[in-house]
Amino acid sequence: MFHTGGKRILDELVRCLSLEPDMVSRSRDCLAETGNTSSVAVIDVLKRTFDSARCGDASLLAAFGPGFTSEMSIGVWH
């Protein structure tokens, strides 16, 4: 679950973290439907994940801010 900082940020996360492109699909959907709404986008992506996550799924929640600011949390769905 990534903050929707923009297409380039999502593309670079996929590339740099060797992610499967579908791992950022909820973030891309949020970006396409609402644009970059700053940090509140994380809540939208989290809600989208709540709708489809299964028990035992692991998730990384990450947000990015101005300059080089980042916050991350790792969790498992129960």
From TrEMBL:
Residues 2-71 form the Chalcone/stilbene synthase C-terminal domain. Pfam families: Chal_sti_synt_C. GO terms for molecular function: acyltransferase activity, transferring groups other than amino-acyl groups. InterPro entries: Chalcone/stilbene_synt_C, Polyketide_synthase_type-III, Thiolase-like. The keyword Iron does not apply. One of its GO terms (biological process) is polyketide biosynthetic process. Keywords: Acyltransferase, Transferase. Belongs to the thiolase-like superfamily. Chalcone/stilbene synthases family. This is Chalcone/stilbene synthase C-terminal domain-containing protein. It comes from Pseudoalteromonas rubra.
